[in-house]
From TrEMBL:
This is Transient receptor potential cation channel subfamily M member 2. InterPro entries: NUDIX_hydrolase-like_dom_sf (IPR015797), NUDIX_hydrolase_dom (IPR000086), NUDT9 (IPR039989). Keywords: Calcium, Calcium channel, Calcium transport, Cell membrane, Disulfide bond, Ion channel, Ion transport, Membrane, Metal-binding, Transmembrane, Transmembrane helix, Transport. The keyword Calcium applies. It is a multi-pass membrane protein. Residues 27-172 form the Nudix hydrolase domain. It catalyses: Ca(2+)(in) = Ca(2+)(out); Na(+)(in) = Na(+)(out). The keyword Lipoprotein does not apply. Belongs to the transient receptor (TC 1.A.4) family. LTrpC subfamily. TRPM2 sub-subfamily. Its main location: membrane. It comes from the Eukaryota. GO terms for cellular component: plasma membrane.
Length: 176
C-alpha cells in the first residue's frame, strides 16, 4: 500500500477512487444428512465464487461500480434481473467487513480501488433466501462459471479476496 511509482489511470476507469462492491456470500458446508462438516474442530464454510471470461482464477462475485450503480456489472451477469432487488436487500442486512482502500495490482498514484466488502451468511440450509439465490444464479456457460467453493486458504482466488475470506472465517469462527 502507498505510493506505486506509476502515473495516470492505468487499467482503472477514472482518476481518484474507483469504487467497487464485493459481496461475500457464505453458508455452512454440510453432509448429506444436513449436519455441518467440521475440520480441526471448526465448522467449514462454502463461499460463492465466480470465474470470469479470460481469467484463470476464481473471484468473489462483485467488482467495479459505475457512478450511480448499486450492483456491479459482473454481479448482474451472475444474477437474473428479477433477483437484483432481493439481493440488494440481502446486502443491506449483511455485515460490512471492509470499507476503503484495496491493495490492487491496477492501482497507480493517481487512480486506486476503494471497495466495500459485505458478508451475507446463510446459517440454515433451509433458508428461503438462500434457496431463492440458488434458483436465480446463472448456470455455467462458456463466458462465466459460478459455484459454491469450500473455503480454504489454498483455493486459487485473487489475493485481496483471500484477505476478506480470512476475516469472515475469523468472524464466524470457521476453518480457514
Amino acid at each position: 500500500m502507498g505510493r506505486t511509482g506509476l502515473r495516470g489511470r492505468g487499467r482503472l476507469h477514472c482518476f481518484g477512487p474507483n469504487h467497487a462492491l464485493h459481496p461475500i456470500v457464505t453458508r455452512w458446508r454440510r453432509n448429506l444428512d444436513g449436519s455441518i462438516i467440521r475440520k480441526s474442530l471448526k465448522k467449514m464454510l462454502e463461499v460463492l465464487v465466480a470465474q470470469y471470461p479470460l481469467s484463470d482464477v476464481w473471484a468473489l462475485p462483485g467488482g467495479s461500480l459505475e457512478p450511480g450503480e448499486t450492483l456491479p456489472l459482473k454481479l448482474k451477469w451472475i444474477l437474473r434481473r428479477e433477483f437484483w432487488p432481493q439481493f440488494q436487500n440481502l446486502l443491506k442486512q449483511g455485515t460490512e467487513v471492509h470499507k476503503g482502500y484495496l491493495d490492487d495490482p491496477r492501482n497507480t498514484d493517481n487512480a486506486w480501488v476503494e471497495t466495500v466488502a459485505v458478508s451475507v451468511h446463510f446459517n440454515s440450509q433451509n433458508d428461503v433466501e438462500m434457496k431463492r439465490l440458488n434458483s436465480f444464479l446463472q448456470g455455467c456457460d462458456p463466458e462465466l462459471c459460478i459455484r459454491w467453493q469450500v473455503l480454504d486458504k489454498r483455493i486459487p482466488l485473487h489475493a485481496n479476496h483471500k484477505k476478506f475470506l480470512h476475516k469472515i472465517s475469523t468472524l464466524l469462527d470457521a476453518y480457514y
